[in-house]
TrEMBL record, chains A, B:
Listed name of the protein: Glutathione S-transferase family protein
Pfam families: GST_C (PF00043), GST_N_2 (PF13409)
Residue ranges of domain GST C-terminal in the record: 88-219
CDD domains the record matches: GST_N_4
InterPro entries: Glutathione-S-Trfase_C-like (IPR010987), Glutathione-S-Trfase_C_sf (IPR036282), Glutathione_S-Trfase (IPR040079), Glutathione_S-Trfase_N (IPR004045), GST_C (IPR004046), Thioredoxin-like_sf (IPR036249)
Organism: Dokdonella soli
Superkingdom of origin: Bacteria
PROSITE patterns: GST_CTER, GST_NTER
Residue span, GST N-terminal domain: 1-86
Gene3D superfamilies: 1.20.1050.10, Glutaredoxin
SUPFAM superfamilies assigned: GST C-terminal domain-like, Thioredoxin-like
Length: 219, 219
């Protein structure tokens, strides 16, 4: 059985739940989930760092001790041989290109803005970063919108792991102060993702985080 | 023939030159290189953005108009079917994990610190970011050092594209103010990479950039 070390409100971790849902794998039957609150230091103890020196979630582990880190690499492995990572070498590399885009040009802005809004106090000095993060995040959203004007999916050959990777933080971008009103193609794509067989929604964030998000909107 | 839009001092672009060198492909015979100075706006004209809306280098283009972006996705495609991207699905995903690490946990700190030192004026407000960038960059280098204490390479099954990806900016990290003296395993690995057949060194950076780097060291 696979053990996943993950933090439920993390889009990076939720990607794995999404793909496992599409693949029909069931919690506690096909995989274990060990809640690992990376927002409160759960990836910092020496036992965790011994397994993942980079101190991040998600991480998967087998009973024989084999491990893998990096959400998008884990998606590639889990999706191997399935329609979620389909196509020839060129098409699969195009799928990977969107996954590298997600980690380099999208997540560091869209996800980090959400984290600051929902997981840091209203007087955190990190909030000074929000305008720049939102500017860069909107640049990423504009690149996505442009692609979706001409293509239904980010993955080659139909819905797949590049869509799952980009859904991870785009679907909750509003919690970071991103208004998706100006991105009709993204909104249509989010709806198409939610309609996929076996789709698993992210659980709602905790009350304290939701309150900080709400206060960030009016701050 | 493949056309590469690249900026020579960019580690992300140099990755492609390295792999093509290992594969025995020759400049102007097997591929074209169009120098695209991203540090001075060459990725901003509408003609470039029409091809790559994310406005970055490198980008590859075929004569029939097919294009691919994201340095590490291009490496995957060019290395397909060669020993530089070898192994089974698990091993290839482990190689990808290091490539996602490179783009998320290494490049935004090690490469950006180098850019600020060599490509921004000495009074640039961006220089205030350097201490934080160096702290995060050293965290990435420590993760690499730990891995290399037990493994010769980052790619599964021998030298390959994860090593090329990480070499891109590690070999010139000193230009960003990173002293590699505390990382003997990284220094040994850099030497092993340089000894690989067909290795292509990055060209020296321009005089004006080298002068800014030197002045950054004493500033």
């Amino acid at each position: 059985m696979i053990t996943i070390y993950g933090y439920s409100p993390s889009g990076n971790c939720h990607k794995l739940r999404m793909l496992l849902g599409h693949l029909g794998r069931r919690l506690d039957q096909d995989f274990r989930w060990i809640e690992t609150d990376s927002a409160h230091g759960a990836t910092r103890p020496p036992e965790y760092l011994a397994k993942n020196p980079n101190g991040r979630v998600p991480m998967i582990e087998f009973d024989d001790g084999r491990r893998m880190v990096e959400s998008n690499a884990i998606l590639c492995w889990l999706a191997e041989g399935t329609p979620y990572f389909a196509g020839d070498a060129w098409q699969r590399a195009q799928t990977l290109a969107w996954m590298f885009f997600e980690q380099y040009s999208h997540e560091p802005f869209v996800a980090v803005a959400r984290f600051i809004c929902g997981w840091t106090p209203l007087d955190s000095p990190r909030r000074a970063d929000l305008p720049k993060l939102r500017e860069r995040g909107h640049q990423a959203l504009a690149v996505m919108e442009k692609h979706l004007a001409e293509h239904p999916w980010f993955s080659s050959e139909g819905y797949g792991i590049a869509d799952i990777a980009l859904f991870g933080y785009t679907h909750c971008a509003d919690e970071g102060g991103f208004d998706l009103g100006a991105y009709p193609a993204i909104r249509g794509w989010l709806d198409r993702v939610r309609a996929q067989p076996g789709f698993v929604p992210m659980p709602p964030i905790a009350m304290e985080n939701a309150e900080l998000v709400a206060q960030s909107r009016t701050a």
